[in-house]
Amino acid sequence: MRESLRVGHGFDVHPFSDDPARRLVLGGVAFDEGRGLAGHSDADVVAHAVADAFLGAAGLGDLGSHFPDTDPGWAGADSVALLAEVIRRLAEAGFRPGNADCSVVLDAPRLAPHHQAMEARLGAAVGAPVSVKATRAEGLGALGRGEGIACWAVALVEGPVAAAAGDGDAAGDDVPV
Ligand SMILES: [Zn+2]
């Protein structure tokens, strides 16, 4: 069967939490330093952006439609498990992950000490290479003021040509969970 390549994009942002008990989790790695992010799940902004990029590449809607934040079952959830479930749903629809790349925007803490662990955890969940890069907002806007962390991601998938045709905008579709 002929295969087609499709690209997807994901973006996510979470503010820092006021709750001192919340841990910062990025790319499935819990940090000892830095404030935790606010959110319904573990607020792993990197895992969320990567998952959204893969859903976008396959035209399967967005993360919110698959895992609504009104669902108590996902409260405090390990977002890397959500990412693995996204990849399973892609496989069901006939798509194979190619790779993903993400840019995390934050001033602190430093990602470098956790960089390899993040790539390993995300790559294991996806079953394909995931690269993680970090950059600073250079004092500009909310991210520059250290009010939260944002992540942009792109992902590539291979899929059947038939599934790729005429499916350009599935965002907001009701996807059965
Ligand atoms: Zn998120």
Explain this structure:
With 177 residues, the chain is an alpha+beta fold. It has a single domain, classed as 60s Ribosomal Protein L30, Chain: A (2-Layer Sandwich), CATH 3.30.1330. 29% of the residues lie in helices and 26% in strands. The protein is built from 6 helices and 6 strands. The chain has a 4-stranded mixed beta sheet with strand order 1-6-4-5. A two-stranded antiparallel ribbon has the order 2-3. A hairpin with a 2-residue loop joins β2 (25-26) and β3 (29-30). α1 runs parallel beside α3 (79-92) and α3 (79-92) packs parallel to α4. The model has no long low-confidence stretch (mean pLDDT 90). The site of zinc ion has 5 residues, from β1 and α1.
Itemize the secondary structure elements and their pairings.
Elements: E1 3-15, E2 25-26, E3 29-30, H1 45-58, H2 63-66, H3 79-92, E4 96-105, H4 115-126, E5 130-135, H5 141-144, E6 148-160, H6 161-164
Parallel strand pairs: 4-5
Antiparallel strand pairs: 1-6, 2-3, 4-6
Helix pairs in contact: 1-3, 3-4
This protein binds zinc ion (ZN).
Number of strands: 6
Query: Could you tell me the mean pLDDT?
Result: 90
| CATH architecture descriptor text | 2-Layer Sandwich
Q: Largest beta sheet: what is the strand line-up?
A: 1-6-4-5
- Unreliable residue runs: none
Distance, first to last CA: 28 Å
Question: Based on helices, strands and strand pairing, what is the structural class?
Answer: alpha+beta
How many helical stretches? 6
- CATH fold title: 60s Ribosomal Protein L30, Chain: A
The global form is globular
Gyration radius (Cα, Å) is 16 Å
The ligands found in this model are:
zinc ion
Give a quick account of the main beta sheet: strands, pairing sense, barrel closure.
4 strands, mixed
Q: Element order, helices and strands?
A: EEEHHHEHEHEH
Strand composition percent: 25-35%
Number of domains: 1
Q: So what's the CATH class?
A: Alpha Beta
Helix content: 25-40%
The CATH superfamily title: 2-C-methyl-D-erythritol 2,4-cyclodiphosphate synthase
